[in-house]
């Protein structure tokens, strides 16, 4: 029995592969495609997904090759790849050691951004407290009738 050829239109770029490759992950979006799918276009006999075709090359390679490791091109952002694999319902595992830095780079960048945000927030809180204290001090010194403390300081 000949393996059925599947046509996938990903963001306008046509990909063809064998159904048996997609069945490697039967619970994934591609592994569970049927002509009843909302993505199936009967007029062109293809499945259409409005996704990035460059990223899809990596996804389709994940299905095609029986590699023990996933290889990621240098130009792909790790967080975008993670989102893409989540969309397709694939596990993002067994990243090759030579490519692991590409995937984890976004985690390092997110940690740096979070650290900067935390520092900025702490600085902003300190700044707000300082400004509030300055305002209160100014009122005490400038307006003797502002409070009892202001009256006491004024009497000194």
From TrEMBL:
Domain BTB, first and last residues per copy: 4-106
Superkingdom of the organism of origin: Eukaryota
Protein's GO biological process: action potential; protein homooligomerization
Pfam families tied to this protein: BTB_2
Recorded GO MF terms: voltage-gated potassium channel activity
Main location: membrane
GO-annotated cellular components: voltage-gated potassium channel complex
SUPFAM superfamilies the UniProt entry points to: POZ domain
PANTHER family, alphabetized: POTASSIUM VOLTAGE-GATED CHANNEL PROTEIN SHAB, VOLTAGE-GATED POTASSIUM CHANNEL
Name of the protein in its database record: BTB domain-containing protein
Organism: Mytilus galloprovincialis (Mediterranean mussel)
Source species taxonomy: Eukaryota, Metazoa, Spiralia, Lophotrochozoa, Mollusca
């Amino acid at each position: 029995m000949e393996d059925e050829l599947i046509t996938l239109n990903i963001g306008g770029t046509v990909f063809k592969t064998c159904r048996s490759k997609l069945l490697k992950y039967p619970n994934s979006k591609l592994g569970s495609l049927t002509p009843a799918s909302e993505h199936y276009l009967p007029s062109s006999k293809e499945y259409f997904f409005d996704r990035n075709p460059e990223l899809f090359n990596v996804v389709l390679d994940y299905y095609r090759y029986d590699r023990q490791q996933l290889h990621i091109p240098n130009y792909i952002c790790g967080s975008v790849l993670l989102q893409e694999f989540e969309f397709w319902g694939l596990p993002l595992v067994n990243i090759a050691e030579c490519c692991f830095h590409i995937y984890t780079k976004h985690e390092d960048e997110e940690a740096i951004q979070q650290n900067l945000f935390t520092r900025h927030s702490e600085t902003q809180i300190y700044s707000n407290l300082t400004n509030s204290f300055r305002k209160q001090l100014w009122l005490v010194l400038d307006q003797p009738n502002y409070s009892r403390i202001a009256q006491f300081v004024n009497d000194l």
